[in-house]
Structures are given as structure tokens and as C-alpha cells.
Amino acid sequence: MQKQKHLLWVSFFLSAALYFFSTEESISEPERATQEQNKGPLPPELEPIERPALQEKEPLRSLRQPQEVAIRAELSRKQLDTALDTGAEEEPTFQLFVFVDTVDGSIPKGGMVLSQLCNIVRPIGDDGYVELTLTESCDIFASRQDGLFMAFSEERWIEFQPNETEEVELLLPAERIGGLGVQISKVEDGFLINRVFEETPAEQLGLQAGSIITEVNGAEVYDLSLYDFLQVMTGSVGSEAEFKLLGDSEQSTPRIFTRRELN
Fold this sequence. Notes:
Elements: H1 2-26, H2 29-38, H3 66-74, H4 77-86, E1 94-102, E2 112-115, E3 120-123, E4 129-134, E5 138-146, E6 149-152, E7 156-158, E8 165-172, E9 177-178, E10 182-187, E11 190-196, H5 201-204, E12 212-216, E13 219-220, H6 226-233, E14 235-236, E15 240-245, E16 255-258
Parallel strand pairs: 1-8
Antiparallel strand pairs: 1-4, 2-3, 2-5, 5-6, 5-7, 9-14, 10-11, 11-12, 12-13, 12-15, 15-16
């Protein structure tokens, strides 16, 4: 009896399976399409999720491009900072080597190389050389202290030559330098006498503090710099010069003095 029930259930499942497959195969394509339409939309929770297409990532740009690496290798830190801040190229320069000695061949002690236009004041080395880095054309001359006064070389005009080098020689006088014997300062009309030193040509002429020198050797001095004035007012000991003061008439005789050294 038990065996018969088992065979009955097997026959039932086989019959159901045969009916299902035969039904699926018997449905035509138009009928299948009609069935699909009649199903209607799926509930929202069963709708398939549309995922956005994955975008291809852009490759990361190197933080330092080859050109920048090359610039960092070639420029000093200061030059690099300037280039990054301003975007400007390195300014061209002109290397000037100045050798200073005296007419008798000795190297001056405590001398200076100067430029009024380029605002240069550089001490002369023990070997007599001064190296200058110029960015424009400059007037160059040398000086040394001689007691109260200063000795000066001839002035040289140096034309700027980008990325070039040049050597120049400046000669200082070997003889002692003398002058009038006053302390001065630049004012609008000329040079103001601030002090008169004792036992000097200025004292002998009766000059007083407060007087203004307006003319030296027949030329007005209101447009001269301090260095230019010192060069025309001083000179070799024993030489003569003449000058006028503010208030002197054109017909008045210039004051003449003989230059003296003052230690």
C-alpha cells in the first residue's frame, strides 16, 4: 500500500512537469508579447537600479613638471623666489674689476671706490682690488683720506655691458692734499661754512661760520655734489684757488688762498 502511494505521487509530478513545458512551448511570440504588456510596471522597490557609468579618472598631474625641476636646479634659492613671485627673468649684470694704486706705485691704505650715480661706496682691499657688480652705467672714482682732506683719482665713466667683464685702473695722487680749512654742508645756493678751523687759510681770510660759498675758480657751485665740490676746492699743497661768497657782487675781487694740509 505504501509503495503504491509513492508511485502515485511520482506520476503526479511527472504529469505536471510535462504540462508546464508543453504549455510554454505552445505559446506564440505575439501571445508572449501580449502577456508581457499585461504584466504592468514593477513596484518601485522591485525596479532595477540604474547606476551611472563610471567616469574614467584623469591621471594625476605631477606636482613638479620637468621644466620646473630644471629651473630649481639652475637657480639659487633667492633667484628662484624672485622668479616665482614676479615671473621676471634674472637681471643681466656687468662685472667690473677695479685696481687702485698711487702714482708712485704704492697701494693706498684706507681708500674707497665710489660712484655718485650708482650709490657705490666700497673699501679698497689689501691687494688694491675691488670687484663691482653693475646693473647700469656708472661713474667710478677712488679716494683716500689725507689728514682733514681727501685725495681723489680721475673719474671714469663705465658703460654698462650686459654679461661682460672689464678691468679698469684708477690712480691716486702721491702728493699731500691741502684745502681752505672749513667744515661745509650742501645748501640750495652753494656750500655752507659750518666751522672754521684754526691756523688755516680760512681763518687768515677772516671767514665766519654761516657764510655760503657760491663760486670757485670762476664757476658757480650750486649744482655740484659734495664730492665734486671737494675736488675743485682741494688740491696739491701749495697750489692756489679762488672763491666768492653769497652777497659778493659780480665786480668784487674773488678771495684767493693757498691750499694747506691739515692733519
